[in-house]
USP domain-containing protein
Amino acid sequence: MPTTENDMPSESIPLALQGLFYKLQYSDTSVATKELTKSFGWDTYDPFLQHDVQKLNRVLCEKLEDKMKATVVEGTIHKLFEGRHMNYIECINVYASFYDLQLDVKGCPDVYASFDKNVRNLYTLYSVLVHSGGVHGGHYYAFIRPTLSDQWYKFYDERVTKEDPKLASEEQYGGEEELPQTNPGFNNSPLKFTNYSNAYMLVYIREVNKEKVVCNMDEKDIVEHLRERLKKESGI
């Protein structure tokens, strides 16, 4: 996404995103997101407010689409994220575009089954964004498999840990769960606890596009002025 030498990260979402991902790839420590949230127009208080991640995703896509107009990457958001579903109304086929879908998970054993029930195209699960908490507050974190291998990673604030695939895809449904009995020979009532972790947003990649979306990014792929600027700012 084109940026100029005069752009400021706190005022440019594209530059703030480029700087964030550059540091994530080349830094050995955790990376702050302050410049990115500033580019949203947020002050120091806004990041601590409860925000809806789906709405934020749509606003972010709209902002990026606007910045891409009349550039060589115009239409990229559309190509990467837009899908279409068909509504059947009085014998008329109506196609509607979408960037995200709300899935019915009732009766499904895991997130894969819920997606297969609603979508016919071939997709592969890339990440699971989890909300832990209740309607009045909580915390977001994510399970991601960056290379689409079987290894999942949990991104929880500044901590990144390897996780079992089952934890990412099958244990984020909230509700009540039972603990295994420690003395199965006794007639003990099962211990139940409430799981406050719920899969809030799933990110899938079309099978036909995964080689383009999940690809290696080297320094030579970054324009020179941006590469030198980010190196200087991050001290890498």
